[in-house]
Amino acid sequence: MKRLSELARCFQGVMPSTIATCGLDGEPNITYLSQVHYVDEEHVALSCQFFNKTRRNIAENPYASVVLYDPLTFEAWRLRLRFERAETSGPLFDSMSLRIDMIASHTGMAGVFRLLSADVYRVLALDPVEGFLTPPDPVLDALPPAPTTGGPLTELRGLQAVSARIARAPDLDGLLGDALLTLDELLGFGHSMVLLLEPCARGGTRLVAIASRGYGSGGIGAEVRPGEGLIGTVAERRRMLRVSGVAEVLRYGRAVRASAAKSGAATAPEIPLPGLPDAQAQLALPLVVGERLLGVLAFESRDPLGFDDWDEAFLQIVADQVAMGIERTRSLDEAPVEPPRPRRRARKTPARALPTRRFVLYENDDCIFVDGEYLVRNVPALILWKLLAQHRDEGRSEFTNRELRLDPSLGLPAIKDNLESRLILLRKRLAEKCPDVRLPSTGRGTFALELDCAVELEARPTA
User: Fold this and answer.
1) Rounded distance between C-alpha atoms, residue 1 and residue 269, angstroms
2) Closest CA to 280 of 315, 248, 232
3) Is the distance from CB of 228 to CB of 106 less than 8 angstroms?
4) 381 occurs within a structural domain
5) Same domain, 163 and 124
6) Are residues 327 and 201 in the same domain?
7) 29 bridge partner residues
8) 315 and 405, same structural domain?
9) How many CA atoms lie within 13 Å of 173's alpha carbon, on the beta-carbon side?
10) The domain that contains 83 carries what CATH number?
11) Secondary structure element (H or E) that encloses residue 327, with its range
């Protein structure tokens, strides 16, 4: 006899489930469910959002039937249920609400598309749906051999390698790059990114991608507001979230959005997903030290079942290691350093031998464009503008982290200013968009401005 826990793939939402109810008048009602949540071997919880007819039927007749589908074998299973209770708070409600809120924020339905209750049902029977599939063909439907895995020892060695690289990383850039590289090479997590929480120069916060694997250089600098989409929701709630069958999840949310728009409900613009445009599974974990949120570690896969319970447990350990490593490297960066070297003018190169790059700062937005193309914004933009202006006016080419921290015009907080992560982002954006300008480190807490171009600076009030 099949156990409920053996249907784990059916609960991941890759294929939508249906619920059938019937009121006292004998008229049946069938509708799709956005979420069927495994509670224990005798209970499931169903998400309740807009199901007025379903709720009326259950109030009159507490029995229901739910059909689940296995996304790999396409087998169908029928659950015969009896309603027990509706939870509107607590761990179960919060867990189910997190997924609903993510869909709502991504599709511009925050505040409209929300979980009303987690309806808990007792499972009275679990039966296969006979005749749903044709008999298997002995040749065409022969299953390939299951892939072999390295087992627990390989997994522990992978965790050991990640931990070792994090512990030995000399700086934040090396820590994040080595961690994502190891997860890819040893354990196959090919698409990942780290977004750190950064205060904006004019108030508020953003999650900014400063390290990625599998996306090229295009993902660096991507921004997400707390509360927006999967990554923003994980940051806001500080809870891990896994979504399987992303395309199906978003299709459901967009259908609700279209229905709400027809009824005149106000909706916000849909939030673009940073990363793979065709991602089918996503997993995001908060990076937390104590009570402080540092950022989010996010993974994607084109496989709808790319992540499972093992990935959640394993990557939560990695996320905790990464968070502690970030804290350690920031503490090193903030430690006192030797006095700066004597200032000296940069070596002059004949102007005719250099190309000219034009930098424009839009002051109202704290945003810099180079040769008409967006480069960087917020504090990294103000840092770059300060360096280029001082190079132009004073001929300086060597700088210290300390002087940036003491400059009130940059708007850095007095404690935990995240300066190193801002410099990492700035260096990577320059390498991608303007390689003629570089900011190499010259020692702990010191760096240089190197130019292979002539620079023109212009400040404008707005974009």
Assistant:
1) 48
2) 248
3) yes
4) yes
5) no
6) yes
7) 21
8) no
9) 13
10) 2.30.110.10
11) helix 309-334
* Residue 175 φ then ψ, to 5°: -60, -50
Mark whether 198 and 287 lie in a shared domain: yes
Same domain, 355 and 451: yes
Q: Pick from 261, 251, 253: which is nearest to 233 by CA?
A: 253
Residue positions counted in the chain: 463
Confidence of residue 258 (pLDDT cuts 50, 70, 90): low
Residues with Cβ within 8 Å of residue 59, at least 6 apart in sequence: none
- Sign of CA pseudo-dihedral 347, 349, 355, 356: positive
What's the token pair of residue 39? 């509670």
Mean of all residue pLDDT scores within the chain = 83
275-285 pLDDT, tens per residue? 777 888 899 99
| Most confident of the ranges 96-110, 246-260, 356-370, 399-413 | 356-370
Range of the domain at 330: 151-245+280-334
Q: Is residue 255 part of a domain?
A: no
Same domain, 47 and 172: no
Residue 443 contacts residue 345 (beta carbons within 8 Å): no
Are 169 and 290 in the same domain? Answer: yes
Strands 76-87 and 63-69: antiparallel
Q: Read off the CATH number of the domain in which 180 is found.
A: 3.30.450.40
The sign of the torsion formed by the CA atoms of 351, 357, 358, 359 equals: negative
As a whole number of angstroms, the distance between CA 71 and CA 67 comes to: 13
143 C-beta neighbours (distance < 10 Å), count: 8
pLDDT at 328: 87
- Number of independent structural domains in the chain: 3
- Structure tokens, 136: 């298997």
Q: In terms of C-beta density within 10 A (0-12 exposed, 13-18 middle, 19 or more buried), how is residue 234 classed?
A: buried
Residue 339 located in a structural domain: no
- Among residues 70, 95, 128, the one where a domain terminates is 128
Q: Are residues 194 and 107 in the same domain?
A: no
Decide if pLDDT at 248 tops 80.
Answer: no
Distance CA 414, CA 140 (A): 66
Cα 396 from chain centroid (whole Å): 39
